[in-house]
Amino acid sequence: MHRKCRSRTTCLLEDERVRKAIRMWIGWNEFDILLGDVRSLKAKRSIVRPIVAEIRKRFLISVAEVEDASLYRRTRLGVSMVSGDRSHIEETLNKVEEMLSRRPEVELLASKMRLVQSSDF
To answer: Where would one find coiled-coil regions in this protein (predicted)?
Structure first.
C-alpha cells in the first residue's frame, strides 16, 4: 500500500514515529539442568513436567524442553516472552532462574539470557 506524504521529510518523520511507537522486546532464556537420580525417561518426565507446568502457571510465559530429550539426567528448558518493557522481561526471566536454582531435585548448570528488540530484525 502506497501512502501520500507532503514531503520526503514528513514521510521519514512519520516512519520514525511508527518505529518508536511499536517497540516490542523479545526475551528468552535457555537453562541447562542436571536432574537428580533419574534412571528412565519416565522418571525424567515426572520431574520435568511439574517444573514446566509451574513456570507456565506462575509466570505466564512460554516454556518447553528444547534439547537433551533422550538423556535421562540432563534437560535444557527454553522460556520466552514478549513485552513492551525490557525491564519486565529481565525481571521475569531472572525470577524463573531463581525459582529453578531453588528446586532441590535439580541442579541449574547454566543459564543464557537473550533480549532483542523487534526493530533489530
So the answer is: none
CATH class of 25-118: alpha beta
pLDDT (tens digit per residue) in 68-81: 778 889 999 999 99
| DSSP conformation class of 117 | E
Cβ(75)–Cβ(44) below 8 Å:
yes
pTM for this structure? 0.79
Residue 119 vs residues 5, 18, 75: alpha-carbon distances, Å? 23, 11, 32
**Can you give the pLDDT at residue 120?**
79
Residue type, 34: L
Closest by CA to 104, choosing from 33, 39, 4, 56, is 33
Listed by start position, the domains of the chain span: 25-118
Are 115 and 24 in contact by the 8 Å Cβ rule? The answer is: no
Q: How many CB atoms lie within 10 A of CB 100?
A: 20
- Check pLDDT > 90 for residue 21: no
